[in-house]
Amino acid sequence: MTSNQQQTIASLGAGLLTGQICVVDCSSILGPSTTLQHFGAQSGGQQPAVEIHKISEYDEDGPFFAWNWLKVGEHAGTHFDAPHTAESGRQHPDGSTETVDPQKLIAPACVIDVSQKCAEQPGCLLDVSDVEAWEASNGPIPSGCWFLMRSGLDARSVASGDDRHPGPTADCIRYLIEKDIVGFGSDCLSTDASDADQMEPPYPAHHLLHAANRFGLASLENLERLPVTGAIFIAAPLKLCNGTGSPIRAMALVPA
Amino acid sequence: MTSNQQQTIASLGAGLLTGQICVVDCSSILGPSTTLQHFGAQSGGQQPAVEIHKISEYDEDGPFFAWNWLKVGEHAGTHFDAPHTAESGRQHPDGSTETVDPQKLIAPACVIDVSQKCAEQPGCLLDVSDVEAWEASNGPIPSGCWFLMRSGLDARSVASGDDRHPGPTADCIRYLIEKDIVGFGSDCLSTDASDADQMEPPYPAHHLLHAANRFGLASLENLERLPVTGAIFIAAPLKLCNGTGSPIRAMALVPA
């Protein structure tokens, strides 16, 4: 007898193969020109630029194969923040990329679009009132979901040279944790706003999310292609030994 | 009105949150002790061992954060082979990790268990007759699926020190391409058998799969936790600039 779960997975498979369920690529290209998140020297320092080094390329180093090795930060480009990246989250036994529960990584997504507010005021913050307004329109935030902020600044900051970007207030992150989100994601370079070292606590998204064993996602792309609710988000870090984070190929499943 | 696709995605979300649909982790830990695939010097050379270097660890280099940078091969540990890794696949415009169609990466899985044959004869090969026997029991191989070989040797080779491992014959790969698989995966270090440099053509899985713009997966884990059919496999490479492959967090969705 076919169970409901078997039926759901069969329908998913058929939808993927026919294109009626669409895989949206939410990652940016990872390479030497990837713009990187960094912290002040007194907070956490700087990761190196991404490097790609040839091993062989159908040549005298290996005629059959092309392949490379990489120098890459755990938090380079579109990436996942594991709880262990923050001092506040270091105590969680399942808080590294190696130990995180995979079941949590694939979950429904809620998308909040603050691109208009951000276009008017690049240094703005995501506050509780924004989330409450979202809930008034879209209903309660489901326990276990990814909560994703679309600032629209991924494209704009490159064009304008203004690299300020928004992030959540401490109260907003506390509110989302109360709603039991699995993690908070952003299309900006970091889950935290560009001025978050001046906030209380400093870097509230990192500090509070990871203290509560929740995850972060940054440098997401194509969030405008996701419905406000009704997408499944897939954000799986490499299984790095004691990893504090990982570049990821973030993807979403949406109805075509 | 709710479409069938919306309903499928909603059921998937509910199943994931309740655990009735289970996320199976099919990746091994990636770090300095990861065993690496290599090729002879005349074929493609050797990738470096994985290195993990500290940037800060809640210390004088950065009190709030821990993070690292990595030296890692595109084909290290559990990984994805893009068509561009083989000379035979270099002409495909959508054949790099950057250009591959994400829609192809999440697809139904067929799992063939040859662990008994491999336990008796570690140097054995997967042949057309094995696939035909699988089809006789399980029905036709669906177009667009991942075809995954479980040798059971991932664990055994570590225990015994015998690092020979199986792979498909050239005819077997030709047969699977005729069935229109999206890619072939293995729990061994490479999609090709350990003696594949002696086969005709050399490295038939790499040569033939990638010539046909299909993908490879290697060093998969936990394939014994997948049903023979009825799982959805997720195998998404990092969006590496001109990448020939990528370490991945391979995962499968299965009914609990």
Key descriptive features of the protein:
homodimer, 256 residues, alpha/beta, two-stranded antiparallel ribbon, 6 helices, 24% strand, globular
Written account of the structure:
The first copy, chain A, has helices at about 5-20, 115-120, 130-140, 155-160, 170-180, 205-210; strands at about 20-25, 50-60, 60-75, 80, 105-115, 145-150, 185, 215-220, 230-235, 245, 250-255. In chain A, the strands form 2 sheets. A 9-stranded mixed β-sheet of chain A has the order 1-11-9-5-6-7-8-4-10. The first copy, chain A, has a two-stranded antiparallel ribbon with strand order 2-3. Chain A contains 6 helices and 11 strands. Chain A is globular. Chain A has one domain: Glucose Oxidase, domain 1 (3-Layer(bba) Sandwich). The first copy, chain A, is about 20% helix and about 25% strand. With about 260 residues, the first copy, chain A, is an alpha/beta fold. The interface between A and B is large, with 99 and 99 residues.
- Oligomeric state of the chains? homodimer
Q: In whole angstroms, how far apart are the ends of chain A?
A: 30 Å
- CATH-derived topology of chain A: Glucose Oxidase, domain 1
Number of β-strand runs of chain A: 11
> In DSSP terms, counting alpha (H) and pi (I) runs of 4 or more, how many helices of chain A?
6
Largest interface: A-B, 99 and 99 residues
Estimate what percentage of residues of chain A fall within beta strands: 15-25%
CATH superfamily of chain A: Putative cyclase
Q: How can the largest sheet of chain A be summarized?
A: 9 strands, mixed
Overall CATH class of chain A = Alpha Beta
Described by the principal axes of the CA atoms, the overall outline of chain A is: globular
Q: What CATH architecture label of chain A applies?
A: 3-Layer(bba) Sandwich
The ordered string of helix (H) and strand (E) elements of chain A is HEEEEEHHEHHEHEEEE
Q: Tell me the Rg of chain A in angstroms.
A: 19 Å
Whole-number count of domains of chain A: 1
The helix fraction of chain A, in percent, is 10-25%
| Mean residue pLDDT of chain A | 93
Which structural class fits the helix and strand makeup of chain A? alpha/beta
